[in-house]
Amino acid sequence: MTETLTAPAAGRAPRRIAGRVKAAACLFVLFALMPPLAAALDDPFWILIGTRFLAYAIAAMALDLILGYGAMVSFGHAAYLGFGTYAVAILSSYGIHDLSLQILAGIAVSALFALVTGAISLRTRGVYFIMITLAFGQMAFFFFISLSAYGGDDGYGLTQRSSLFGFDLTGRDGALYYVTLALLIGLFALCHRIVNSRFGRVLTGIRENPVRMEAVGFAPFRYQLTAFIISGCITSIAGVILANQAQFVSPAFMSWHRSGELIVMVVLGGVGTLAGPIAGAVAALTLEEGLGALSEHWKLFFGLFLVLMVLFSPRGLTGLLEKTGLMRGKS
Amino acid sequence: MMNLFILQLLNGVQLGVLLFLIAAGLTLVFGIMDVINLAHGVLYMVGAYLIATFAAVTGSFWWGLLLMLPAAVAVGLVIEFLVMRRLYARSHLDQVLATFGLVIMANEAVKMIWGTSPLSVPMPDILSGSVPLMGPLQYPVYRIAVIVAGLAVALGLFVMVNYTRVGMLLRAGATNRSTVSALGVDINRLFAIVFTLGAVLACLAGALVAPVLSVDTGMGESVLILTFVVVVIGGIGSIKGAFLGALLVAVVDTLGGVFGPILLREVLDPSAASQVGRMLAPMLVYILMAVILFAKPAGLFGSRA
Prior knowledge:
- The complex is a heterodimer of chains A (about 325) and B (about 300).
- Chain A has about 325 residues and is mainly α.
- Chain A contains 13 helices and four strands.
- The longest helix of chain A is centred in the first third of the chain and has 28 residues, at about 15-40.
- Chain B has a domain at about 10-220.
- Chain B has a two-stranded antiparallel sheet.
- In chain B, strand 1 (about 130) and strand 2 (about 140) form a beta hairpin.
- At the A-B interface, helix 5, helix 10 and helix 12 of A face helix 4, helix 9, helix 11 and helix 12 of B.
- Chain B: Keywords: Amino-acid transport, Cell membrane, Membrane, Transmembrane, Transmembrane helix, Transport.
- Chain B: One of its GO terms (cellular component) is plasma membrane.
- Chain B: GO terms for molecular function: transmembrane transporter activity.
């Protein structure tokens, strides 16, 4: 399955990487300009929607870290979104509203879950890996469904948002938006450093040829598991934001459809590009919102779009754009 | 207590037989074509909706069942021809995306055609009512019929896989696809047959369960994941593994839900026991899967990891 995920030719790699950072920087500038624009158009509703887009961008980027750079197709990543959302709900019910503590709690739970499920899932590959991550994701989903203290299936409303260094984000949509954007930029920088570090190169090497990497003296399992844990932890941060954005948590955040949508975002933007999945998240959610505005049965068209995209453009949105010449030489 | 145990065990076996019907097709598709198909649960749902429609039109469960079968063949062939055929050579990621798209489409299409309110299928007269098992114990005839029908299909499948030419090709294909193809077998036709067979079995499971469950759009989802667990536990490509895995998963799932809280009451106080029991019960099958995979990464009867 690695053939479609193959890295670009070695000689062009540095230019490509610089191009991707530039593409990401352009995206971040656009994101930063969004709230004033929404205010000018007198449509502050978009700021809250935008926060949701940014949160999913974080999650898609985190998934790309293992899917794109490690060829690990995790179909259970929505579980980590769920851990983040419930970290907010559970801690705030005990009166802890500090955002950084909630993020830490989400990360701790995610790291533990990723360590255990990753260690079992990574003993297998291919179809097995996809199905096992899906099953573990579903296990987490059922756990929170039966967590009746926090509403079970119905979910749990949050009366207030988290606070950042004592600054309460409740009712401040703009502030939440910029906090999310700052997190996205910071985490992009982190992921960018990871994939270009020695660790990232080993991970890419394992993606290309695990047997050869093992012969050279790297234990694939340890590198893959570490990447798997990092990815889960970053995804949980997106969950913390989503709980604040919606001021509501429910197991719906962790349904397997959500995991599928995360994969869609990564593939739409381009696998193994980091910046691509950020654009992919925006594209997928815009498509959902757009189709939703057009038709009550938008899911029919969304599903059809997915099928046709795979059948006719195997390389995702960037493949589509490159084909039409829009992004040639850029990313 | 003993009576409850026997009743729940039978319920577990009935669920297991249904899971096997779905898992059999799935494990063959995985094993032989190395294709992951998330839309397999959709077929189970479509089977239930088809029999609901045909039974309502003809007024008879049996006619409904009879008409459902050719319709299921048609559905399988169409999906194979339009989508699956183009996915065999693709990466697993592409297969996940395309079949995920199919799931979303199919769920919405079913909602558009049949509406969102659940349908029900009348139970055939001959099979309604209960039979006495032992002492005061009664068990619904229909559920026994489901078990018998499922076991019959399992036996048929076993004979087909082990003693017929198509079965020989299936086994050979699961072991080494390219060699089978090189020996002059039309592998595409074999794939189409396998996929359609799997689709019909999944539709049949949906049709059999329709009189005891309400037919709604969510029914394929929970079953799909359970089936994945079955296939993973049993080992991909193994019919025997799918059969044992299905029974194991179903019995653990059914008994765990009922007896988990009862057993926990021995060590915890009643309210805590029911609380913990309710939380652990739905997770039991996944814990079972984790334990089995930890010991045998390729599943109980898997040849490839």
